[in-house]
Amino acid sequence: MRARFTRVREHAYRFFPLLIVLLISPQVSTAASYTLFIKPGTHTVNGAGGTTINVWGYTDNAATAPMVPGPLLESTEGEAVTVTVYNQDSRAHNFVVRNLTTDTGSIAAGSNKTYSFTTSKAGVYLYNDTLNSNVNREMGLYGALVVRAAGGVKKAWTNGPSYSIERLWITSDMDKTRWNDVASRGSTVSTGTYKPNYFLMNGMGGFDAMHDPNTVLQGSTGQVGIVRMVNAGQFDQSLHFHANHFQIIDSDGSRLSSPEWGDTINLKAGTTAMVLYTLRPGIFPMHVHSAQMETANGVYLNGTATLIVGQ
Question: Is the pLDDT of residue 103 over 80?
Fold first, then answer.
């Protein structure tokens, strides 16, 4: 480097103004851009009690079926995010990131809208369609945005607690007979009656969620895992780490100054949470403290469930 400056010292003055500008200019945040498509389709719950359900969902590919939940959106602290949403359904829909965006207006059938916002706070956020008295969300129009600490560090937020592995758990519920079947054929849902018979973990029944590597909380004994939780359903869910305890570090976007220990967390409908868990040796179930929610159309254990595995 010294030799290079010696060779060009007679021209160095040309670069000094540029160096000064770079040194005093504010740091420019990075940007993330996403394109989503809203469309109708079907979603299959495998295993005993499973079925194919009519849904509406987001996808990131105009040529593919809707995804339930929608595509994972990712960002870092301080990043500018742009999401363009195309409505390929025959009904009006919208896109709202809870606690981040404020535009609740509709996207007419066949049109699109672009949303721009900055993710200043690390955490996990629910995005969904807020129209039609929660029917659109119940039909499958929901997903998660994960905002990580800046700089690529494995911390819950800048200067926050550290972790080694991470998982995202999105829970939801569907009333196939009274909501999905009715809404999909264009009829009006009687929202006063809601009796869900399918309870999903990351869009899956428990039989699949207990074998899905992106859902099962698995790692080496002693590793610390962060679990970001989103309840996209209509019912509260009490998630229970069987025979284990965890630390609650964030409750619906509010960071706890003193983490709370527990083996069960009551996740209200439409809210989020983050917990830290130190893996123990063994295989343990993670399920909800409601027998009905552990089923797929009454079949146990094909509802909201997965596994915790320490090796």
Answer: yes
CB of 192 closer than 8 Å to CB of 231: no
Q: How many domains does the chain have?
A: 2
pLDDT tens for residues 277-296? 999 999 999 999 999 999 99
pTM of the model: 0.90
Based on the fold, state whether residues 202 and 148 are members of the same structural domain: no
Q: Does residue 20 lie within any of the structural domains? A: no
Contact 225, 283 (CB under 8 A): no
Residues 195 and 92 placed together within one structural domain of the fold = no
Residues 174 and 93 in one domain: no
- Specify the pLDDT at position 30: 79
Residue span of the structural domain in which 78 resides: 31-152
